[in-house]
Amino acid sequence: MTIAAPDTRELAARAEQLLRTLGATPPAPGLLPARTPITGGELTTLSPSSDAEIDAAIGKAATAFRDWRTVPAPQRAAVVRRLGELLTAHQHELGELVTLEAGKIGAEARGEVQEMIDICEFAVGLSRQLYGRTMASERPGHRLMETWHPLGVVGVLSAFNFPVAVWAWNTAVALVCGDTVVWKPSETTPLTALACHGLLRRAAAEVGADPEIHQLIQGAADAGARLVDDERIALVSATGSVRMGRTVGPRVAARFGRCLLELGGNNAAIVTPSADLELATRGVVFAAAGTAGQRCTSLRRLIAHTDVVGPLTDRIEAAYRQLRVGSPLEDGVLVGPLINSRAYTAMQEALTRAVADGGELLCGGERVMVHGEDSYYVHPALVRMPAQTEVVREETFAPILYVLTYDDFDEAIALHNAVPQGLSSAVFTRDQREAERFLAADGSDCGIANVNIGTSGAEIGGAFGGEKQTGGGRESGSDSWKAYMRRATNTVNYSTDLPLAQGIQFG
Q1: Which stretches are annotated as coiled coil (predicted)?
Q2: Phi, psi of 383 (to 5 degrees)
Q3: Do 269 and 455 touch, CB atoms closer than 8 A?
Q4: Residue 136 burial (CB count, 10 A)
């Protein structure tokens, strides 16, 4: 099936126009292609950062940190406040650029920019709440306390699927904490990075701050490796695959740097006999098919009780068959393209393995839109599985939903937790005992556990991250700011004596 899509030249011209509107200079031609998954064509090219340019960027961020760390946090927040205002003014333009470069439908792309605005608001408030604490000292005339201080240069490695929001999560919080930032975006989404970098530097200049507090480097994995290995980078915040995390974590640890990892997710939802099936269907379909299954929080496993699996899968299959797949620039489209051919190949290989394991493909999986040779549109796949086989335990970054069954709630939780990843999870139930058990210590082992909502669509106010092979990092809300700061324990003696702790007598 072939559906018309815009001409790549039109999209390239629009991307250049959007960059100029957002205050970014379109890049000079180079060796790094910027493609659109809408057609698979090339929007433009740009030059990857050289080793010398990367070294200089890190050096500028390290130099800027020396002064930035001494600026009072509420004053540092002025940059983030202004960035939020600029994002609000340009939400539609930046959202459209996200659509062109990442393939998200308009509502999701604008929603991603809204996340950026929200985290800016959060960080501005946070700037007056970087609280330490005072503890009781065992020694008379002494005060014991904790204080938090800026950490240093933060290196941000972001992925294509949230090309701007994850950068904002890290950058807004890091800046109010007194850190400077060097950002290496995915080589798949360099243009949105140019736009965000330009907006932040504009925000800094307009409030009288040093624009050098933020640096941007472009390139493939070797460019990111420079941040991983450079001792001037105090914290590496990396979002991507488990394979990437296995490389980044040990290398940062080897130089005693800090790491914040947001890696793979193999997210599941349990649907119990008491669940509202209409509610569950809506939650499942968005979580599994939204962003063409290319969210780290996308729903990949559905664990349904044997009493409801039939009517539930019937509802989901009916909804899947109504999903409109096509160009994300068209009104009414709900599922856009996969990012590239590798994603499509991985999806087809996973489906082949699932069927070989005894799975039944209920619907989807076919390539439903071809515009040229390099665009990859697929219909979300629904697969009934007899067991949680190896392919089900792996994360495939595409819209595949595996359906598993259970008879006992303990069995459901065991099935849910029997994967290496631990990012997001959900249960649909009207039984409070089941809900509370799911959230308890012996329930879901994920960093995010939801009741009667899907696995995707987290708010910025809560800490975002997961356990096991997801990496253990936390970004965004709650007390995630502590990852971007260093803690000091302080003892103040305001007496004229010098008692030692633990009652030790010396001399």
Answers
A1: none
A2: -130, 120
A3: yes
A4: 7
pLDDT > 70 in the chain, percent? 98
Q: How far is residue 17's CA from residue 163's CA, in Å, rounded to a whole number? A: 19
What is each CA distance from 137 to 134, 147, 501, 503, in whole angstroms?
Answer: 9, 16, 9, 12
Q: Which class for 288: exposed (0-12), middle (13-18), buried (19 or more C-beta within 10 A)?
A: buried
Q: pLDDT tens-digit profile of 293-312?
A: 999 999 999 999 999 999 99
Instruction: Find residue 122's DSSP bridge partners.
Output: none
CA-nearest of 318, 300, 261 to 472 is 261
What's residue 505's pLDDT?
85
* pTM of the entire predicted model: 0.96
Residue 436 contacts residue 294 (beta carbons within 8 Å): no
Judged against a pLDDT cut of 60, whether residue 4 lies above it is answered with no
pLDDT in tens, 114-131: 999 999 999 999 999 999
φ/ψ of 124, rounded to 5, equals -60, -45
Long-range contacts formed by 127-130: CB under 8 A, 24+ apart: 127/73, 127/74, 127/76, 127/77, 127/80, 127/176, 128/73, 128/74, 128/77, 130/73, 130/176, 130/177, 130/481, 130/485
Main-chain phi, psi angles of 25, to 5 degrees: -80, 125
Whether residue 180 is predicted with pLDDT greater than 80 in this model: the reply is: yes
Joined together, the tokens standing for residue 313 give 């899968």
Extended beta strands in 36-111, E state: 42-46
Distance CA 17, CA 14 (A): 5
Distance CA 37, CA 102 (A): 7
108 is a catalytic site residue: no
- Residues 319-330 have pLDDT tens digits of 999 999 999 999
Query: Is the CB of residue 235 less than 8 Å from the CB of residue 248?
Result: no
Q: What's the rounded Cα separation, in Å, for the pair 330 and 5?
A: 9
Query: 44 CB contacts (<8 Å, ≥6 apart)?
Result: 12, 15, 16, 26, 27, 29, 33, 34, 191
What span, in angstroms and rounded, lies between the C-alpha atoms of 180 and 227?
A: 13
Please count the helices (runs of H) and the strands (runs of E) in the chain: 15, 23
Could you give the 3-state DSSP secondary structure of residue 420?
A: coil
Q: How crowded is residue 392: how many other Cβ atoms within 10 Å of its Cβ?
A: 25
| pLDDT at res. 3 | 44
Residue of 262, 395, 434, 475 marked active site: 262
Torsion, CA 408, CA 409, CA 411, CA 412, rounded to 10: 120
Provide the pLDDT confidence category of residue 373 given band limits of 50, 70 and 90.
Answer: confident
Q: Does residue 28 contact residue 48 with C-beta atoms inside 8 Å?
A: no
Secondary structure letter of residue 502 according to DSSP: G
HSE, CB side, 13 Å, CA atoms: give it for residue 363: 14
